[in-house]
Amino acid sequence: MYAVIETGGKQFRVEEGSRFNIVGVEAEVGSELVLDKVLLLGGESLSVGKPYLENAKVKAQVLAHKRGEKILIFKKWRRNDSRRSQGYREHYSTLEITSISA
């Protein structure tokens, strides 16, 4: 059985035991997270939500929190001797799917 879930403005196709990174969540490492924005359930039969399926949940365990690679933003205005540099790192949380229920 697999599911398509939405979290952090992105969609992921997940199965039990799969691991993936999402935009950082406020949860302790080792705690359980319930994702209820399930768009699709697949397997023997296919169920599609409008936009979400009711009574469908995906349970995940938080494995780690980390930060992504640094993104550098550099702006320069020509003939003005003006420039600006800025860096940014996104926070990510690694999840492992423990169960999918309909």
Mean pLDDT: 95
Beta-strand content bin: over 45%
Seen as an oligomer or otherwise, the chain set is single chain
Counted up, domains total 1
Q: What is the global morphology?
A: elongated
- Number of H/I helices: 0
Unreliable residue stretches: none
Fraction in helix: under 10%
Give the strand tally: 10
The N- to C-terminal Cα distance equals: 10 Å
Biggest sheet architecture: 4 strands, antiparallel
Order of helices and strands: EEEEEEEEEE
Tell me the radius of gyration. Answer: 19 Å
Strand order of the largest sheet: 2-1-5-6
Structural class: mainly beta
Question: Which key phrases capture this entry?
Answer:
four-stranded antiparallel β-sheet, 0% helix, mainly beta, elongated, 102 residues
Q: How would you describe this structure to a colleague?
A:
This protein has no helices and 10 strands. It is mostly beta strands and 102 residues long. The chain has one domain (2-101). The mean pLDDT is 95.
Could you write a compact summary of the structure shown?
This protein is an all-beta fold. The protein contains no helices and ten strands.
Write the layout of secondary structure elements.
Layout: E1 2-7, E2 10-15, E3 19-23, E4 32-35, E5 38-42, E6 47-48, E7 57-67, E8 71-77, E9 82-88, E10 91-101
Antiparallel strand pairs: 1-2, 1-5, 3-10, 4-7, 5-6, 7-10, 8-9
